Automatic annotation (TrEMBL), chains A, B:
Keyword Transit peptide set for record: no
SUPFAM superfamilies: Composite domain of metallo-dependent hydrolases, Metallo-dependent hydrolases
UniProt protein name: 5-methylthioadenosine/S-adenosylhomocysteine deaminase
Native source species: Paenibacillus thalictri
TM region positions: none
Length: 431, 431
């Protein structure tokens, strides 16, 4: 058993709104103590870390990402959505090899862990590569092979089989750091009967479902035209919400749809940066929260964001809904921090991360608060939401292992990943 | 004469959308050359800087700030506007001494220069302290004593006299780095006759005017109730726009008001972060730009933002108006970068900064682009807007002087400023 004590630290535990100053004890992969004084004499610990000038908080949870798409960061911005997808994203993504997915994912993981994200949801293809990258990095992830069903039946069958195999192979792996889900990509990319088959597979595997839903106004209109129902009613009818479900976006929702999501305990991953950049609109987050829907935050991919800074998503969530609603108390700082930590964890059915309390897994980050933009020392919850960025993170611990120290990632080879990601991009766009 | 060459650099000049790779030459306070190869043999330069892995661009221009209010960062967030002002801001600001203004301003300047802002507009009180801090820091600033006229005539007279004296004393000082303006604080804090006197003083001094205008819906309504006119017509009637004018906010504007601003060449400082946080609303930036109004960006104070990261304001400007308008090409990256650099400079009548071209003042910043969130090397203009933050800035040059190197400010004592700012805050809130 390895024991670590962080002393002289400032802690946002997310158990309540009070900041704790003092000590936090880690035994192996779990937090075992938090309090103003050490739990035992300092010489009893394997390691004592001086937390002076650092703020410690739960690691951030990014509940919607396509990590490999970092290879397309900045490739085709400021374009109309269909042009962006059809002329830029899809032709290149169609060429992605397993190796591209590996390096793109590693580039994203590097950016995420250095910026304080300890858990992410990933929906993509070549998922064995993604899972291996997660395992190597030391990060926590909820992974799913997203399937698009606009293809012949035999290809549909093959994709579903692959998704099931991946979900079976990796669920609970990497000391439990990896969990899996089943994912029909979206109601507009999967025929109804295919969605029903994927839902059935999720039942068989006893796994949750992740999908894109109601991201753009056009998608909602087309769903109504094609199926006579808006996406929420359509997916409800297909039985999806009988499974635990996390939907990404949920931008265009009626009051009735919000009530339906609340009734089924469907979770919504709010992606404010991506929704703004793609001009999809602004999700009704205050209304969702008021209805009791669990709302978390996602970056979406670096192709539509274009970064994976969860501090920025928390800040956008706190700022945007004030400005849009005209209510300066809409989404206060603490609620934005909940969305980025504990509510993110709950959204993917992880009940042992997201708070710094004894018994929880040791997933935590350190922020350098001895910088001008964190003075005066008024309110650190406010400072984390309104003043902090990914670049303020210095140390990251996941499952009791320090994977970032002094701003350096200890588990991945940064120079190699940057080099290889650049090479992948050049190869993909040269032919 | 001191000559410096930056070699192996990547340059966003803002003269056009092309990125230049190669060299930039500085002689004393001016840029004298930019091109793919050095202008003269390397041994002819006093200093040769290796720009490998760095992106150089014009320093950012923050066109609306109250720097001293950094002392109130995080003090009273997530409150209704009137509660925030009346119960939190005003009682403490009323106690601000010259010393408080000095340390609050230095704290802000430190944050700004380390984050790549080379020029700022400041409207506050105790402006001699602000000007001295600017002079010492090496930054560029356009300063103005903001006057509130809700006071007896003798106090009005004294404030105006002080504002005039400050404007005279400091205009053109610090090797021309400091310019001044005249500022009635806002139409709702200055009686009409007092605004007319301030406008007359600006005429007499041949200086521009800066004011807050149409920030909140309530302000516009009350202006109509009190004066029978919306703020734009009210200020037009008082003769303000006969002087060169920069207004902050301009959130609630009709088409007709936008046309009026365009006709008078009134410049608008868009403060997206502050406007969202205070729930003021979202300015009609695409419409303003389409009408030919010069739009720049401001952070407002750290009490309502709560940081002075101009990269964030540029990103908000690029993201927000896409999401609100539903148009994914509203405010493209290059336009957001214009708003943060060259258009900011033009907005305060500085015609020698904001671009990296020969003949311009050497106001430039270096960004560390050898980081995961800037890979692949697709489009650096996009990367600066959608992926960068203040923390990516490593070096800052103003007027040919390097005031930040390797992330350290060379002109101000960071440890002392953080200590003193904290002490000021504690004293202000203890009694």
């Amino acid at each position: 058993m390895k024991t670590t004590l962080i002393k002289n630290g400032t802690f946002i535990t997310m158990a309540d709104t009070q900041v704790v100053t003092g000590c936090l004890e880690i035994q192996d992969d779990r937090i075992t103590y938090i309090g103003s004084t050490p739990n035992q004499p300092l010489d009893q610990y394997d390691e004592v870390i001086d937390g002076t000038g650092k703020l410690f908080m739960p690691g951030l949870v990014n509940t919607h990402c396509h990590a490999a798409m970092s290879l397309l960061r900045g490739y085709g911005d400021d374009l109309a959505l269909q042009v962006w997808l059809q002329e830029k994203m899809w032709p290149i993504e169609g060429k992605f090899t397993a190796e591209d997915v590996r390096f793109g994912t590693e580039l994203s993981i590097l950016e995420m862990v250095k910026g304080g994200t300890t858990t992410f949801v990933d929906m993509y293809d070549h998922m064995n590569e993604v899972a291996q990258a997660v395992e190597q990095s030391g990060m926590r992830a909820c992974l799913t092979r997203g399937v698009i069903g606009l293809c012949p039946p035999d290809v549909q069958d093959a994709k579903l089989k692959e998704a099931v195999q991946f979900a079976k192979d990796w669920h609970g792996k990497a000391n439990g750091r990896i969990t899996t889900m089943m994912s029909p990509h979206a109601p507009y990319t999967c025929p109804p009967d295919y969605i029903e088959r994927i839902v059935q597979a999720a039942h068989d595997l006893n796994l949750p479902i992740h999908t894109h839903m109601s991201e753009s106004r056009r998608e909602v209109q087309e769903n109504e035209e094609q199926y006579g129902l808006r996406p929420v009613a359509h997916l409800e009818k297909l039985g999806m919400f009988a499974r635990p479900t996390l939907v990404a976006h949920g931008v265009h929702l009626t009051d009735e749809e919000i009530a339906t999501l609340a009734r089924y305990d469907v979770r919504v991953s709010h992606n404010p940066g991506s929704n703004l950049k793609l001009a999809s609109g602004i999700a009704r987050v205050p209304e969702l929260r008021k209805a009791g829907v669990l709302v978390s935050l996602g970056t979406d991919s670096s192709a539509s964001n274009n970064n994976l800074d969860m501090f920025e998503e928390m800040r956008l969530a706190a700022l945007l809904h004030k400005g849009v609603s005209g209510d300066p108390v809409a989404v206060p700082a603490f609620e934005a921090l909940q969305m980025g930590t504990i509510d993110g964890a709950k959204s993917i059915w992880l009940h042992e991360v997201g708070q710094l309390v004894p018994g929880m897994k040791a997933d935590l980050i350190a922020v350098d608060i001895d910088q001008p933009h964190f003075y005066p020392k008024t309110n650190y919850i406010s400072h984390m939401i309104y003043s902090a960025s990914a670049k303020d993170v210095t140390d990251v611990c996941v499952d009791g292992q320090w994977i970032v120290r002094g701003g350096e990632c200890l588990t991945l080879d940064e120079e190699k990943i940057k080099y290889e990601a650049q090479a992948c991009f050049e190869r993909l766009t040269s032919s």
